[in-house]
Amino acid sequence: MKFTEYPHGTPCWIDLGSTDVAASTSFYSRLFGWTPHSSPDPQFGGYVMLHLGDDAVAGLGPVMSPDQPTRWLSYLAVDDADAAATAVDKAGGRVLAPPFDVGDVGRMALCADPAGATFGLWQKLDFAGAQLANEPGSWCWSELRTPDPAAAAGFYGTVFGMGSEVTDMGPMPYTTLKVGDKTVAGAMPMGDLFPAGTPAHWAVYFAVEDADASAAKAVELGARQLVPAMEAEGVGRWVSLEDPQGAEFSVIRM
């Protein structure tokens, strides 16, 4: 599906901070058929826009400090990045990088919720976010893994006006986050599926035609499969993986 706008509070973009930009670019390009586009402008610091066909689907750039792990980051669309950053702070979150302009394409900030899960704020100027999503080879879902989904839902509701709904998905309850009447993201409790000490985080899912085949290809390219393939009725079949630089991601056949 093509996108040109994202309502306030909706996940709109993802990017990967990598300890090895060239290796990460090669891995995801070979896995999903993406084409990298690098800007020669030094103000973008080696940031790579990843395209599927003619559409931007994700970004990739170097980590901001030597001790930062390779990790995917989800951005939430906001009408006003400065106002949203202030709301994050007032609701008990942290502003890790205050709002700043990214050329003439947008204004962003980096934040953490009260449990420590990091996310970005994105205010559109010339670029709204992912131009293609929910199609094979593109990002389709962002999911918050957190110790207390109810508390998280309260925070994101206060800051972004998100609604929430809890549903039964087998062994654990699952919280969906909504903007208006549209479900835009999910939140799940960090139970026995996660090793002790795993920090709260936003995870990303990529749509594929065949989850098992895509996972096998990822492993051939140097990834590690974290858990066996799983299915949820009415949702799909997915596999959780760790890329060669250590970033977690999932592939899902919707």
How many strands in all? 17
Q: Give the N-to-C terminal Cα separation.
A: 14 Å
CATH topology: 2,3-Dihydroxybiphenyl 1,2-Dioxygenase, domain 1
Structural class: alpha+beta
CATH architecture: Roll
Largest sheet: 9 strands, mixed
Radius of gyration, whole Å: 17 Å
Compute the number of structural domains: 1
At the fourth CATH level, what is the homologous superfamily?
A: 2,3-Dihydroxybiphenyl 1,2-Dioxygenase, domain 1
User: What's the mean pLDDT score?
Assistant: 94
The total of helices stands at 4
Order of helices and strands: EHEEEEHEEEEHEEEEHEEEE
Helix share, percent: 10-25%
Question: What low-confidence regions span 5 or more consecutive residues with pLDDT below 50?
Answer: none
Model description:
This protein has 254 residues and is α+β, with helices and mostly antiparallel strands. It has a single domain (1-254), classed as Roll (2,3-Dihydroxybiphenyl 1,2-Dioxygenase, domain 1), CATH 3.10.180. 17% of the residues lie in helices and 44% in strands. It is built from four helices and 17 strands. It has helices at residues 21-32, 81-90, 149-160, 211-220; strands at residues 11-18, 35-38, 48-52, 55-62, 71-77, 94-102, 106-112, 118-124, 139-146, 163-169, 172-179, 182-189, 201-207, 224-225, 230-232, 236-242, 248-253. The strands form two sheets. Strands 9, 10, 11, 12, 13, 14, 15, 16 and 17 form a nine-stranded mixed beta sheet that branches. A hairpin with a 2-residue loop joins strand 3 (48-52) and strand 4 (55-62). The longest helix has 12 residues, at 21-32. The radius of gyration is 17 Å and the shape is globular. The chain starts with 10 loop residues before the first strand and ends with a strand. The relative contact order is 0.17.
